[in-house]
Write a structure and sequence with these properties.
By secondary structure, the protein is an alpha+beta fold. The chain folds into two domains: about 130 residues, Creatine Amidinohydrolase, Chain A, domain 1 (3-Layer(aba) Sandwich); about 220 residues, Creatine Amidinohydrolase (Alpha-Beta Complex). The chain is about 35% helix and about 20% strand. A six-stranded mixed sheet has the order 4-3-2-1-5-6, with helices on both faces. The chain has a four-stranded mixed sheet with strand order 7-8-11-19. Strands 14-17-18 form a three-stranded antiparallel sheet, with helices on one face. The structure holds zinc ion (2 copies). One zinc ion binds next to loops.
Length: about 350
Amino acid sequence: MAGRIEALRARLAAEGLEGFLVTRPENVRYLTGFTGSVGALLVTSTTCRLMVDFRYLEQARAECSGVEIVYVPKRFWSGVAGHLCDSGLKVVGCEGNFLTWQQVQALQGEAEGVELRPVAGMVEGLRLVKGEEEIACLARAVRLAEEGFRAALHLFRPGTSEVEAALGLELAIRRAGAERVPFEIIVASGPRAAWPHARPSDRLLEPGDLVIVDFGAVYRGYCADLTRTLVVGRPRPEDEELYALVRRAQQAGLEALRPGVEAREVDRVVREIIAAAGHGDDFGHSTGHGLGLAVHEEPRLAETDETVLAAGMVVTVEPGVYVPGRGGVRIEDPVVVTAGGCRVLSGLPGERLISIGEGQV
Ligand code: ZN
Ligand code: ZN
């Protein structure tokens, strides 16, 4: 953790800041090990102070070493503002994309003489490339998600509702040892599989349905994110074809993923294949996103992301095709960029639609 604080200090100097106020929980955790939901970490060239309220005082003392813990008894953001004033700093960076309007009002209103300057990506930039221990945690999270998926697969049979299946899957993932699931599991069946981020509904699975199952697991704060598309019973030839297209696009994306390549290039390669098959308009989301302490983080495998990929970055590759009224297919695997290309962290089969129910598993 000390190395991470030092890396942030190097950035402070480069940005002309005397201090930086970290409030995004994942960022605070990354720098200090503190796992509470609210805390404000002030890093300067010589000090590192974590301000917490009563709920987290003992926890912060137990979880953090090399960090000064400051107790803020009442009105947390006013207390943080007071601390900024007392510190004698003139220009302090903050996370403009995370603080709420109210928090900014409290900080600015009460931290007289301190200029708060929003600077994006200060800690996120440090989190881009994962260390070995982080990659091991991510790989473990992926394994827990997969173990749960395998254990719950039998639930995806005709007559089970999406909600029931999602609940069973979540239980199985947590039984496998995950501390939690990182997002509400998506189970989208039949025509609802054309909604990329559908919430599970009361709809009952029917023979012939395509079912998109998007799930994950959290291990020591690190988030796995995977998607498989199932078919209830026997697949229709046109659904097999759609699946084969998405799979081909995903494989091309994996082949394009290597150090030195811009993130948007991977997206372009994947998108081109889907567009060439006439489904360009049916693939409206980006190809993937970074994984780490947050389930969606930098870099984005998206048309606009010029990040140059480097060994140690962990991203998902998740093309999808969604045909309104008919259904959809998405395949998502987490991968780590390696010196020679990339390594897929997941081990679930993805070559073809996973057929379930009606005697086929
Ligand atoms: Zn996902
Ligand atoms: Zn994802």
